[in-house]
Amino acid sequence: MEPREKRLVFPFSAIVGQEKAKLALLCVAVNPLIGGVLLKGDKGTGKSTLVRALANVLPEIEVVADCPFNCNPRNPLEMCDSCYERYENGEELPIAKRKMRVVDLPLSVTIDRLVGTVDVERFLKEGKKALQPGILAEANRGVLYIDEVNLLDDYIADSLLDAAAMGWNTIEREGISFRHPARFILVGSMNPEEGELRPQILDRFGLCVEVSAPMNPEERIEIVKRVEEFHEDPISFYKKFESEEKKLTERIVKAREILPKVEISDDLLKLLAETVVNLGIKTNRAEIATIKTAKAIAALNGRRRVSLEDLEKAMELALPHRLRDRPFQKPPRMRPPKPKDGKGHDHKGDHKHEHKKEEKGGKRNQESQSRGTGNLEQNFRSSEAKIPRIESRNFDGGEFRGYRSSRDVSVTVINFPRGVPVSYLPPVNGGIKDVDFYNSLIWAVLNGKKPPIKLDLNDVRVRVRKTKAPTLWVLLLDSSGSMAVQKRISIAKGIAEKLVENGYTKRSKMALIVAKGNQAEIFVPPTKNYWEVLEKIESVPTGGRTPLSSALYNLLLLANRERMKDKSVKVRAFLITDGKANVPLFGKRIKEEITELARALKKREIELTIYDTRGRGINPGLSYVPILERVARAEVHKV
Listed GO molecular functions (predicted)? Predict the structure, then answer.
């Protein structure tokens, strides 16, 4: 298989640019205890190519020849239960050499495939309970690669994090109790446009690199030439870079030998600790990952002492993704460390200059917005707002189709291979997709069959699982002129931003509809790029009339479009308004329109929550909130 892999995989040393990403991957190859690498960047920037190319330069490792878990024959602390028992009994373990592997974790992976399950074939033939290893077993002492890691289902991510944190995969199921080492280099790639990564997973990555396409025309031309040459004759292309690939492998092997002898001075340690404290980073993983990376960089360069330059490079890889305490907090600006006697440039003047530029830009933007319409528009910033906790919901799983899920809606599904198993049933209408082999075999035995067992339809049982369904949260922001009174729009924007943060926590898709002027507009179509929604909320100008009917109509259209893609999508809408409306949609009376639209929302099972910005104890005057509350069964909060 090795020649085939070399023909198909683009050589690591042939990749143009991306020096930071290459360095990060080489560092974790030298020292897997750094904790893995996250590659963030737009589509088509070479993230997957980098990781798959890494496989060709990884050195060989010694494994127990007849063990499926790649156990280390020299270290009993890195052996599975079976190998350890043989070692304790004095058996000489057979040794083989294998290349470190890059194992792909598909987004569609099931929990059984990830952690391992009962070996059905052996059970059927011999009647013995045995383990069929999963992906975590294959990845032990290798690289586990997750493309689009930010789209991974939560229940899979949780199991993966447990194994990565402990270094062991423990299996307790169907009467089987077993554990094996799961010490792998975790490498993930993601496109930030598809949504942010959960903080728990983000902190597990020791290093994080922003990957972007080069903007130098010469480099782009060279990339095209190399890719074309590779596609035309991959074998010749690989031979062209074969010596460079071998040098990289030798460099990693030599660096591993040097690594235990690499030292770092107390001055550099103090400098790192002060920098981390000044940046407000709370996790201790920051210093640990930075030191390990700096030592790996020094070892890769054949040195036994960490330099200031090594530390700077390590900090650029290990610190930026840890700068935020909260998901949407603006990170502080990271400056390179300075030695004690270093004279640094004063950035205060630069900061003031930038602030003035920002202020001027904001004024120009506001003026241009005012000139763009016939009405006077203002741009208000958001203010801190409190909103009630948004509870998750449980729904019937009859319409569930299994697309990208959220953490907001739980569904019980039968005969669908995603989610946490809670029970089993005989198969009902439809095909058999999610067989519970263990309980099917138990039923076969109860029906009088003996090994070797042959199952028939009367014996088969399918799993009942608890899983998460996809949700869409639609924010409807009233930004009309009446919302400028007492700066209600500032409170409204604050509520909208809190909702975005809640949506991020629940992993729901978000959309933004703004009601302002003669008709409402979809400012942000359904997305998981929460930063985009926040930026749009902050930049929305205020002024003009109130097209509430148009906003509700756009909500219905948006929900219909999403449900055409996936019938199981649950839509939750959040209307932030003072309840006024003065623009009819179809030329009817506004009250009649809003009543009809409210009926349609209820009929299409769109859950509506209203944040009434007029507050408590204020006479609402002419407000359409009571109609929506009564007809659409909306939940209303006074703010």
Answer: ATP binding
